[in-house]
Design goal:
By secondary structure, this protein is an all-alpha fold. It is 78% helix and 0% strand. The protein has 14 helices and no strands. The relative contact order is 0.14.
């Protein structure tokens, strides 16, 4: 075989790998469209199952004549399929409708309160990764010892305890008994007044506090975030602990690790160099689903801690039976979950090439 033919083989293999990866990414990206379409359709018809949104939100507070005028003006007396087509047309133009109870654009509500939910989810994910991966590695290293049993019990408690109940316990211990952390809100009144000075606030209080350059405001924001992030993060940490422990132990028992052990490689090096990276793959794969569950848990967490994000507003609009607002918030969460799962799939394909096929 000539030298040029020998050099061409790795190049062809690399091109084949690249084309397979990009084909995988394109396929996963295109799947977002039907996924979001199906979710939008389900949410629309479920919201209409109890009748038109105006009757649900304002029925009993308006006279029958005024109610019919509002229904006709909003177009809710038209055939359902016509309303559905109009709603899809509005979505394509970024119009999610107007809330019935406070007459605000749903899109403005999503922008205003979405940053609070994303900030909470990000902080909770950091808690989940630090606690889940850290304790999972210790449990795998101390398998069948007292530390392993204690960590597994802790993981079960984290996963099985309802997030609102865990939030109430954390508030009772740290906000009432010990009085070291605030019980509710995203910041104190003084910090809120400081944020009002910003010309272009982001809505992410940590970033806005850094923009202010005031360390006391940043510490105040972080203190308010500790309990909500713990309550939401520990729920997912319980899953990560079990995943890390199970997969690290499985990798420990694999052939190539046994070979490395027979060559005298230390247990610490086996964990860090040989068993750890392969155990990450299932965690990355499951992370997308856990983030979706985290967003669902944000509704109860934000309500428990009066953290004014999308979850908190969703609960308020559900109480008011404002289905237009509920519909918009649920659709946004569905789109976020679909996009996050796409990103996780791409990361998993980069880490493990077998995912692409």
């Amino acid at each position: 075989m000539t030298q040029s033919a020998t050099e061409a083989q790795p190049k062809a293999r690399k091109n084949k790998l690249s084309s397979g990866f990009f084909r995988f990414v394109l396929t996963r990206f295109l799947l977002i469209i039907p996924t979001v379409f199906i979710l939008v359709t389900i949410v629309f018809f479920v919201m209409r199952a109890t009748g038109d949104p105006i009757s649900a939100a304002l029925g009993g507070r308006l006279t029958p004549e005024e109610l019919q005028k509002r229904i006709h003006a909003a177009g809710y007396d038209r055939p359902l399929i016509v309303q559905y087509i109009d709603y899809l047309g509005g979505l394509l133009h970024g119009d999610l409708g107007t809330t019935l109870t406070d007459n605000q654009k749903v899109s403005s509500i999503l922008v205003h309160y979405g940053s609070a939910t994303f900030e909470l989810a990000f902080l909770a994910l950091i808690v989940a990764l630090i606690v889940g991966i850290g304790l999972g590695r210790i449990a795998a290293h101390k398998r069948d010892h007292a530390a392993d049993a204690g960590i597994r019990t802790f993981a079960i408690l984290c996963y099985a305890t309802p997030v609102f109940f865990l939030g109430l316990i954390l508030k009772l211990i740290f906000a009432i008994w010990l009085n070291v952390l605030p019980a509710s809100g995203r910041s104190s009144l003084g910090s809120e007044m400081q944020f009002s000075r910003l010309v272009s606030p982001t809505g992410f209080y940590i970033i806005d506090a850094i923009q202010l350059g005031d360390m006391s405001v940043l510490l105040d924001v972080l203190r308010h975030a500790v309990l909500p992030a713990l309550a939401l993060g520990l729920l997912t940490a319980g899953v990560f602990i079990r995943l890390v422990r199970t997969n690290v132990i499985a990798t420990y028992n694999s052939g190539y690790v046994e070979t490395a052990r027979s060559r005298g490689v230390s247990e610490k090096r086996l964990l860090n160099k040989h068993a750890w990276k392969p155990a990450l793959i299932p965690i990355i794969t499951v992370m997308g689903m856990q983030i979706a569950l985290m967003l669902a848990g944000a509704v109860l967490t934000e309500t428990t801690f009066e953290w004014k994000g999308l979850g908190f507003m969703l609960s308020q609009y559900l109480k008011a039976r404002d289905f237009v607002a509920v519909q918009g918030i649920v659709i946004l969460i569905a789109i976020i979950v679909a996009v996050v799962n796409f990103i996780v799939d791409v990361i998993a394909a980069l880490v493990d090439p077998r995912v692409r096929y």
